[in-house]
User: What shape does this take?
Amino acid sequence: MSLLTLVGVEVGKIRRSKILLILAAAAVILWIPSILNAELNFGMQAEGISPENNFFIQGFMGMAWFMFPASMVVGTVLLSQTERANKGILKMLALPVSTARLCIAKFVVLLSLAATQILMMTGMYYISAVISSGTQDYSFVLPPLFVLREISLIFLSAIPMIAFFWMLSVCIQTPVFSIGIGLASIVPSVLLINTKVWFAYPMSYPLFVITSEYGKLAANLDTAQVELIPWIPVATLIAILCLGISCLRFGQAERR
Amino acid sequence: MSVSLEWKKVKRTGFLPAFFGGGTLAAIVPIINMAVRPERYLNQQGSPVQILLDANWQMMAMLNVLLIVAGTCLLYHTEYADNAMQKLKSLPVRESSVFLGKAVLTILMSFFVLVIEAVAVAFCTFHWFGIEKGFFSELCRCFGYSLLLMLPCVILSLLISEACKNMWVSLGIGVVCVFTATMLPTTNFVLSLFPFAMPFQVFAGADVAKSMHYIYGAIAELAVCSLAQLLFVKVRRGFE
Assistant: This one.
């Protein structure tokens, strides 16, 4: 089977999982405070950021710090647990399909869940920007190309993190550990983005990227900027390593 | 009886090491914070417990709440995973008593986690500030208050896990609730009564009247959640 067919099969499996509802609920909850507190965006002279940029970036910082990584942990639970019930994974492994390809197909589904969540956030951003523009009599809507650039940056920087979570859920059979380690690893990212070794910690990438964008948009704020040289090689290495380990380990526990 | 049964059930699920590990992780937070930048905290006004909790409690509480969410998901996941729940329902035990057993177990583990954290705070005080008279009673009051405010969160997340057959749904709802709790403004009293937001409150430094309001709120929420559980079980039986 080609990878594309396998991805289609995996998407079919989670069609009735209600995961999209959960992702949508998160997106809605994220933007409600921004709409209610829209007038606070006008008091950012000290940082030197325009109200519409502040509205955008604060919302996406809220997402990148906790909700987005945590949703990805939930996504890994979904992908690994749907098939453990009633031993569906054993039947999958008995088919003449390469296990590594199966693992990659599931990872691609996880990536598409991430993309879906970011797109939902963006959709909700536009809705709430229009609402706030109405209530505050000031246009909060940013040009789509700029928004597209920012969300692509978040998505790309999140890939090593998602690969790490996927490795956790493949390698650790006890669900409470893979969930616990995943969720607990999100919490320190807010501290690590202020250190020099942030590039070694994949969970802090999305937050670091969006924080550095904040620094770019705010004239008077000096946040650490992305340095491509240690970051890109390290991030690629982490992503390849995590994916490689998960491809090797996928299905091992069931085959014993 | 049912608590010891639950204890046996979770033996091989990693539930106990997870709480131990989570508690230790949260306990390391103040120690690292003090070790890295002691000068920032040593000059502050107030009692050592208050300074330490103000500086670190947000992160520790976040870890505690995430631990509770993950742990309660697991407790009901083990029942639903291989249809043990169906067998359980055919036994002469009430579903509510199973719930109670799981709740008592989770509360015991949360107590254990808080004890680890209290020891860490005591260590920090001893090492950096020096223990004064009345320190231990203040410590006990603070962590007792934290335990009480954690109870509604435990009961509600257990209730969510009981209601959802699939683990990712209960975990997803739990995570969304934790996220909501971090978004809520702490200055608004009514909003901070949200069960997942309450464990973020600190006793030390807050005035007593306000803390009493939180305690009453926690007790009321406990009553409402327990009632909701009883009703939920009855209603769900009716539809099965």
User: Anything to note?
Assistant: The longest helix of chain A spans residues 99-136. The mean pLDDT of chain A is 90. Chain A touches chain B through 32 residues (CB under 8 Å).
